[in-house]
Specification:
The radius of gyration is 17 Å and the shape is globular. Strand 1 and strand 2 form a beta hairpin. It has a single domain (26-162), classed as Electron Transport, Fmn-binding Protein, Chain A (Pnp Oxidase, Chain A), CATH 2.30.110. It is mainly beta and 172 residues long. The strands form four sheets. It has a seven-stranded antiparallel sheet with strand order 5-4-8-11-12-7-6. Strands 3-13-14 form a three-stranded antiparallel sheet, with no helix packed on it. It is built from three helices and 14 strands. The structure holds flavin mononucleotide.
């Protein structure tokens, strides 16, 4: 018996497409997860931010086992990362930090987060600095939990939203 996903009145087998199409209906924001290594800043686009715990303050992210940036962040002496929640005007950063083979930080304005120096991108809606707490296996991803050490919010700025593989507001 195959496993089934339920969609608008239809049951379809659970394959990669039906999984992504279905989970893509859960709209999220978009972040850039960053860290500072001895060779400079690293970061990658990350949608899987979860507000995990208030006391103690914990966040979680899911990181692909294929990620190149994450192992570098994990190896830093501070074992810290910064989650940059992108604002509506930052769809270009979403694309840039998902691309391979480019200098992602070239021309990007950032300042160091207070505890670890991990990059805070200029103009984000909020940033959350965290120290790695635990890492759990999660299929083709790892579930990383981080203890929040510092954060800053700009609720006056509009969010960038990711829904059905599309960014909103759409780029003009
Ligand atoms: C909107 C969006 C959301 C993404 N979310 C995640 C995520 O939650 N976890 C992840 O590991 N990769 C995510 N990615 C993919 C990575 O950003 C992409 O594979 C990137 O090239 C990884 O860079 P790295 O190899 O330097 O770590 C996302 C990409 C996009 C465009």
């Amino acid at each position: 018996m195959p496993e089934y996903a339920q969609t608008v009145g239809r049951q379809i087998p659970v394959d990669a497409k039906s999984f992504q199409d279905t989970l893509g209906l859960f709209c999220t924001g978009v972040t850039v997860v960053s860290g500072i290594t001895q060779h400079g800043p690293v970061g990658f686009t990350c949608q899987s931010l979860v507000s995990l715990s208030v006391d103690p303050p914990l966040v979680s992210i899911s990181v692909s086992r294929n990620s190149r940036s994450w192992p570098e962040i994990e190896r830093t002496p501070s074992r810290a990362f910064c989650v940059n929640i992108l604002s509506a005007s930052q769809s270009d950063l979403c694309a840039r930090f998902a691309r391979q083979g480019i200098a992602r930080f070239s021309g990007v304005r950032w300042f160091p987060a207070p505890e670890s120096g991990a990059p805070v991108l200029q103009g984000v809606q909020a940033w959350i600095e965290a120290e790695i707490a635990d890492i759990y296996p999660g299929g083709d991803h790892s579930i990383v939990t981080g203890r929040v050490t510092c954060l800053e919010a700009h609720p006056d700025r509009e969010p960038l939203i990711y829904y059905r593989s599309t960014l909103f507001p759409a780029k003009k």
